[in-house]
Amino acid sequence: MPPDSQNSEELVLAFLAEAGDEFVSGEAISDKLGLTRAAVWKHVEALRAQGYRIDAIPARGYRLAEVPDRLTPLELRPLLNTHDLGQGLHWYEELGSTSDRAKELADEGAEHGTVVIAEAQTAGRGRRGRAWASPARRNLYFSVILRPELPPARAPELTLVASIALCDALRQAGVNAGIKWPNDLLASEKKIAGILTELAAEPDRVHWVVLGAGINVNARAEDFPEELRGEATSVLLERGQPAPRALFAAACFTALEEWIDRHAEEGFAPVREAWRERSVTLGREVIVKADGREIAGTADDIDESGALLVRTRAGVERVLAGDVTLVRPR
Ligand code: BTN
Q1: Nearest atom (ligand 1) to Cα of 184
Q2: CA 95 / ligand 1 centre spacing (Å)
Q3: What atom of ligand 1 comes closest to residue 191's alpha carbon?
Q4: Is the CB of 194 under 6 A from ligand 1?
Q5: Is the full-model pTM beyond 0.70?
Q6: Which residues pair with 89 in a beta bridge?
Q7: Which of 132, 184, 191, when mutated, tests ligand 1's pocket best, judged by the most ligand atoms within 8 Å of its CB?
Q8: Whose CA, among 21, 46, 71, 161, lies 20 to 30 Å from 198?
């Protein structure tokens, strides 16, 4: 399809999406978008062929009744109200890892805010070399390219920034999510989302950061590998009803951009405060695996650079990177 035709199709879809449950006349669409009535009809047919259900009633016009459960630019763009995040959007039916593709694009010069999103990953990666279960069309797998003006030592702050944003998006979707240090999202003490942060930098300058996010949206228990079933959850499992993935992705992008901008403008202080408010780690007995050691104690706080402060019998340990286990009971 030629690019301008694709664009008009997106505009027709955006117009219908904005009208929500209301019918809009073919005349209103053609006037607003500068298209002939025949062109409007052609775009409506093309959208229907892609799985959109569009009601048409002669005297009333068109109404968007159902959108396909897909995350292509056609579905996502009309839902985005961001200035950078997702404005460059690369969609794939299947990828090894969205973060690997995002890193390639970052090396080729892709702009700040570019997003790579896939319906499935065959080699999804988690932190510490773990695999990330990525069944097709159930969840969200995306990676965002950032070009922050930060010294490399401050890049880990972005990991906490992202965890706040995803926590807020999950809460808006009705899930009682909290953050386990540094950036695991938990609900009912099970993992619902994870963030993988990778970067390329010189000693004094970050070239790019790739934030990779995996969020379990509509995964059922049987979609998780057996060994994870007691430890992982999803929006569907928490709420008892599925979430529209495109809407949820748009909410994540909005929250991410808001927090990334706030961090750029105001620094780490508001991030630290917001992270504390959403934390399920602070005040808990924890065991932290870091640098081949195990540190047992109480998670007291995060410091002004986001490091975890663990109070042990021997004193306070400052942990920059590690894996936290929350010791039960709460
Ligand atoms: C974690 O271990 O908690 C981090 C998981 C991050 C998974 C996401 S899914 C999208 C992106 N692509 C990947 O290969 N990993 C991240």
Answers
A1: 3
A2: 13
A3: 3
A4: yes
A5: yes
A6: 115
A7: 132
A8: 71
